[in-house]
Write a structure and sequence with these properties.
This protein is an alpha/beta fold. The protein has 3 domains: 310 residues, Aconitase, domain 3, CATH 3.30.499; 190 residues, Aconitase, domain 3 (2-Layer Sandwich); 201 residues, Alpha-Beta Barrel (Aconitase, domain 4), CATH 3.20.19.10. Helix content is 32%, strand content 17%. The protein is built from 27 helices and 30 strands. The strands form 8 sheets. Strands 21-25-26-27-30-29-28 form a 7-stranded mixed barrel. It has a 5-stranded parallel beta sheet with strand order 4-3-2-5-6, with helices on both faces. A hairpin with a 7-residue loop joins strand 12 and strand 13. Helix 16 runs parallel beside helix 19. The protein is globular, with a radius of gyration of 27 Å. 54% of the residues are buried. Bound molecules: iron/sulfur cluster (SF4). The site of iron/sulfur cluster (SF4) has 12 residues, from helix 8. It is an enzyme of class 4 (lyase). InterPro entries: Acnase/IPM_dHydase_lsu_aba_1/3, Acoase/IPM_deHydtase_lsu_aba, Aconitase/3IPM_dehydase_swvl, Aconitase/IPM_isomerase, Aconitase_4Fe-4S_BS, Aconitase_4Fe-4S_dom, Aconitase_dom2, Aconitase_mito-like. Its EC number is 4.2.1.-.
Length: 795
Amino acid sequence: MFRGPGTGRNLTLLQRTLATHASLAEKDCMSITPPYSALIQKLGRVRKILNRPLTLAEKILYSHLVDPEKSLSGGRRIRGEANLQLNPERVAMQDASAQMALLQFMSAGLTQCAVPTSIHCDHLIQAAEGADKDLKRSIVTNQEVFDFLQSAAEKYGIEFWRPGSGIIHQIVLENYAAPGMLINELMLGTDSHTPNAGGLGMLAIGVGGADAVDAMTGTPWELKAPLVVGIHLTGKLNNWATPKDLILHLAGKLTVRGGTGRILEYFGPGVASQSCTGLATIANMGAEVGATTSTFPYTPNMKAYLNATRRAPVAHAADKAAAQGFLSSDEGAEYDEIIEINLSDLEPTINGPFTPDLSTPVSQFASFVKSQGWKDEFSAGLIGSCTNSSYEDMTSVADLARQAKAVGLTTKVPFLCTPGSEQIRATMERDKVTSTLEDVGAVVLANACGPCIGQWKRDIKEEENAIMSSFNRNFKSRNDGNPLTMNFLASPTIVTAMSFSGKLSFNPMTDSLTLPSGEPFKFTAPSGQDLPSAGFSTGDASYYPEPMPKPQPTVQVVINPDSTRLQLLKPFSSHFGPDTENSRGMELPPLRILLRVRGKCTTDHISAAGPWLKYKGHLTNISENLLITAVNDEGGAVNQAFDHERSTSGTIPEIAKSFKARRQPWALIVDENYGEGSAREHAALQPRFYGCAMIIARSFARIHETNLKKQGILPLWFADKADYSLIGSGDVVETIGLADALEGSPTASIKIRVTKLNGEIFEISTKHTLSEDQLNWLRAGSALNFIRARMNGLD
Ligand code: SF4
């Protein structure tokens, strides 16, 4: 059972961590210092192959290649085309997504993770009354999930950051990030702000659970080499403009898709003048333009941040790596595109509502609001989150609060503040930032995601209203579940100043507030401090896990067999081999078509989110949402499938379940770009769970196609896209040629023999993208089966 500090399992944790903190002058940096010598040596091999100047992003990526010669040789174009096989140095997972990743990891049968891994309990904490009560209540509500995560962490040697310790990205920046590092974080589909750690000059890339499991099991992680966009920063931010305004401005320029398949690499004199945490804010919101990640060359401010967070040995090693040219781009390196931004031209910017790329400079915001006919008011101001909870952010807003308090003002609307970590919370408290904010009406919430991820228990009617926040995302319903709430994104200082007015039209740079005396009052531009003069306070030592804890194989992972939220995964069985019912040898058994899906079918159509998220750790329960928003091309209905053998119809999960019950393996026919959207592994696990063995598509989204292969589903592409319409529900399909591919000819062509319901038989041609490794996964029944067999010496 998960317990608070001072009892049971947590007492052990507390004792361990107190011991660590007794001599806490510096962190143990063994596991958090990148192996610079090895990376630089590998980069030498890369240079021999590519023989051209490299961008910083390329240096970091390519120095983490498993085999540079295999990935980069041949004189072909790399960026935008080559598939890279990489070895990330670390994995970080948040509590919601970690559940299925750990269940999968457990089914691989390993005794510990191949790379240092951490779990962060941040997404499941509800915001309602304030930090202490919210934390206690949320621990009780999610007890079984936290118990599971903590026990699995102990068993496999994973660092466990318990509820209240902070938000994953802030913890990673404060504790694990290092210049030149490559790290995977496992994110919810709705949350891809891993790149926050790019503020320390590294590549941090958000991935789905299947990719995180790859890194945890030591399987090379595959990424299509991104294009690299150079963002040249000149000038200097002035007055009220902050790093947040830079990224809000850029989001307006690039739109939500402008960074897709690209790394944003900032360079130029404007980089060094930003604080490390300011760069993290910019990198964090690169996700809003769809960028793979963002990064910056190593700066003196990064070094200062590493020292302030007790990682001097990392700074020292980074200095040496920088002196060898590893932590910045080469002279003459070419970018796929260059964007020029003069920081001196930027003014505070407000983005939204409902999309982060609708960007309006604050000087034009009042007239924008008027032109839309919105009420000139907002109902809450929210600051903090992983995007903007640095010491600099908090001291800047405290400066405004102090100015307001001096003239007797308090905020006009509820004003909520979310510290990003225990370190930030404790330092704010010690330096009287918290009391200064509370003096003007702020409510300080738990160190967790809270309202940013929709964990905001808000008592308002479902009617149109506006909120101002320093968060990063503002899609409909994200914060309070109300689709009519308009979330406008701005810097913490703009949100704070506007909260004293309660009006959307208030421009704190030019407008005055009226004091009770009738006198006008105008804020002076706020100033903050990037690092605390007295150093960071670590706060409650029991929140900090021991670095690289030893796995404890005797620990039982806690899963209640009656749980509706967690369920152990049973390995999927292979279709091939003497122990199966398959009489077709190394070809798939005859498969019945469940349905032909029409048009767009994203991972959200395949495995819906919303209320289903609570079942992320329970494959049986979450599978009830399989394809429930997909359109059946035969009839055009949503969530309808036909069972021709039984002459019935039902929802898609109902018919899939009935196929599974009578041991009838099945296949899907799907349209273009099947599985686009977030890299949600459930979208591959669920069809496999119900008995899907093959999907034939007009085209696949690449990540989802790989996820299908990992779960042992054969993805095939129509050689002639017109064949899509020839196959329908109830038809039987059989592979011809798969045996050749599985038995040593990976490029063998695979045909499909189709037997229509009326008895007509014909063949169609298909293409596939299975590599030799992926064919091994298919033969074993899943990638995890293959790993387990290899470990047991059975392969
Ligand atoms: S604070 Fe918001 S953006 Fe950051 S990790 Fe939590 S939910 Fe994601």
